[in-house]
Amino acid sequence: MSSGKSAAQLLSASNIGALLDSVELFLFDCDGVIWKGDKLIDGVPQTLDMLRSKRKKLVFVTNNSTKSRRQYAQKFHSLGISVSEDEIFSSSFAAAMYLMVNNFPQQKKVYVIGGEGILEELQLAGYTGLGGPEDGEKRVQLTSNCLFEHDNSVGAVVVGLDPYINYYKLQYGTLCIRENQGCLFIATNRDALGHMCDLQEWPGAGSMVAAICGSTERDPIVVGKPSTFMMQFLLKKFDISTSKMCMVGDRLDTDILFGQNAGCKTLLVLSGVTTQSNLQHPSNNIQPDYYTSQVFDILKLSGP
Amino acid sequence: MSSGKSAAQLLSASNIGALLDSVELFLFDCDGVIWKGDKLIDGVPQTLDMLRSKRKKLVFVTNNSTKSRRQYAQKFHSLGISVSEDEIFSSSFAAAMYLMVNNFPQQKKVYVIGGEGILEELQLAGYTGLGGPEDGEKRVQLTSNCLFEHDNSVGAVVVGLDPYINYYKLQYGTLCIRENQGCLFIATNRDALGHMCDLQEWPGAGSMVAAICGSTERDPIVVGKPSTFMMQFLLKKFDISTSKMCMVGDRLDTDILFGQNAGCKTLLVLSGVTTQSNLQHPSNNIQPDYYTSQVFDILKLSGP
């Protein structure tokens, strides 16, 4: 079942063996899969330990751009899971890597609508970022003869989830994209909602990205899921065919679609935003290969 | 030439007579047509006087929702032009009228992402508005167990140009639309850019509207140009066939399209955002019936 058109199979004691045997690399989404907000989901550490003991490779692929890879590794450690920075593929990292693989000139600057994580990844890649949290409290003067100045050496605008979005940043990003010749417009992702706290959802990067689409009348280059841009790095790093990879995630339109677009096996967990009735609703046309309630089931079903 | 497909005719001494004879009502856009920011465009008062002396009816149709009709009438007066409130059709007024003609219940509330003008028109129509400028300085607390509360009696969210856009307002509007059953999502307009000052353009209502589309995955009901919603009021008020109306504006995709969608004659003036080369560019498929440099030409070409 690789087309994604047939209905998903419930993960069970009778099919888990075949899945584990055929997969060398598991890709995990984080929010709703590994943790919810600041709380680890039940049984995750034991399950990851079991997979490592079977010599499976593990990577963590997240659309959340507010943190850098270093900051993500710290979060894993603070939750008692040992993960190295180079097992983490965040959309903040993907944005910096997009610039690098496209030979974006080091002397050009990058304007950021988003969090510290993007700025840190840009810096690690040797680029100069502007904006981000620093522009969060800036206000605009809308007098009749005001002139908003922007840096003409900005060659890319990166937009991610930004809880400090304001009119100053919208105008800055818009002017760069409209007026700086060849300026790139890069979206970390277009998720409608983001997990900003445990009890409810908040507007996601898709909201800020859409705001810039609305003012510039341009479409962004998306580097996070479901775009397969990050897969280039995984393939180069691991040299494993995507048919021997399994994407584990809680969102149909990002995680599962990302896995399917890349040719991976896919496993939906119901511990995040998607319910079984969402999955089985006639309007849903994204079917993973397998689904189960949570990551812990991989351990529980595979037996002692 | 009513299809809008043939190339626009330059307004001239030889065709102005036929235009004036066939038109009983002129609809004018304001920004870029009557004024630019706080400056009146040359020759406008004399031209409007001449049209009134020929017993032409005049109305002013603007997508700018930051002001109410009362505030627009004040602006006209401050520039030395006598215009009554009921000759003004702003998108702020249109939003309130949309609720009224659709029997929106008076006991339900309206959350506003936008300016004072929308709140004033809502109040005049008997509705209770929330949000607007009052929420401009509100910040969100993104702790892990935070819960953002919203009013369950909000039955409509109205989004217009908002220079004080922030994450609080995005979350408030998003929660109302996603969680309050049947909640309407109304956009004053979707213009990419707005005339916030004389020297450059700024992100328009289209940016804020897109941000809410991005987080709610819903499309708005648009009440401003190029939607012909406001035409219902004009037709009821004046009882003039749209073929005897002429829309005068500076934007192809709002003003001219609005006029054409309603079956009016259309006149593009080049005193605002559209240049002659924009008009004549092969990628442009919106052709007005006539074009000229500015409103004053109507007077100058029609002779003594």
Automatic annotation (TrEMBL), chains A, B:
Reaction equation(s) it catalyzes: 2-phosphoglycolate + H2O = glycolate + phosphate
Keyword vocabulary terms for this entry: Acetylation, Chloroplast, Hydrolase, Magnesium, Metal-binding, Phosphoprotein, Photorespiration, Plastid, Transit peptide
Principal subcellular localization: plastid
Catalytic residues as annotated in Swiss-Prot or TrEMBL: 29 (nucleophile), 31 (proton donor)
Compartments, as annotated in UniProt: Plastid, Chloroplast
Gene3D superfamilies given in the database record: HAD superfamily/HAD-like
GO BP, sorted A to Z: photorespiration
Entry annotated with the keyword Ligase: no
UniProt cofactor note: Divalent metal ions. Mg(2+) is the most effective.
InterPro entries: HAD-like_sf, HAD-SF_hydro_IIA, HAD_sf, PGP_euk
Cofactor(s) it depends on: Mg(2+)
Pfam families for this protein: Hydrolase_6, Hydrolase_like
Gene Ontology MF terms: metal ion binding; phosphoglycolate phosphatase activity
Binding site for substrate: 225
GO cellular component, one term: chloroplast
Family per record: Belongs to the HAD-like hydrolase superfamily. CbbY/CbbZ/Gph/YieH family.
Role summary: Photorespiratory enzyme that dephosphorylates the 2-phosphoglycolate produced by the RuBisCO oxygenation reaction.
Protein name: Phosphoglycolate phosphatase
Biological source species: Cephalotus follicularis (Albany pitcher plant)
